[in-house]
Prior knowledge:
Blueprint: H1 6-24, H2 41-77, H3 92-97, H4 121-124, E1 132-133, E2 139-140, H5 145-152
Antiparallel strand pairs: 1-2
Helix pairs in contact: 1-2
Zinc finger (dksA C4-type): 83-107
Protein name: TraR/DksA C4-type zinc finger protein
Domain Zinc finger DksA/TraR C4-type: 78-106
Amino acid sequence: xxxxxxxxxxxxxxxxxxxxxxxxxxxxxxxxxxxxxxxxxxxxxxxxxxxxxxxxxxxxxxxxxxxxxxxxxxxxxxxxxxxxxxxxxxxxxxxxxxxxxxxxxxxxxxxxxxxxxxxxxxxxxxxxxxxxxxxxxxxxxxxxxxxxxxxxxxxxxxxxxx
Length: 162
């Protein structure tokens, strides 16, 4: 029996097979060094960065494989193409663009997972163009903060200030 989702199913199965093959043929990160004592710190940092990158990519692939399995399960159950939140039909254009989706655009996960965001982002996203509210509800205006710091001192020589 041919369904309108056969092409998408073939795409999902091919991608799942590709990810499983990649996972099975992935070499674990092994260093050839017996001791890191004589290594330059930058070499150690490079090794660590490569290891973290590999781990992040593996996690991403595992998440993608899980999404593919869920979409294939929905196809088997006959619920693929129906939004899990509102039970409306998901447009074919969305299914072709994001074949693992189980929700319509209105119910797609759009919130940011705050658990994985760094704490520094709250500060980094602040601008000096608008006052920032402190914890004790005082407004602080940072628009002249550079000028205030420069009054205390800077690395500029007297001829730079002319």
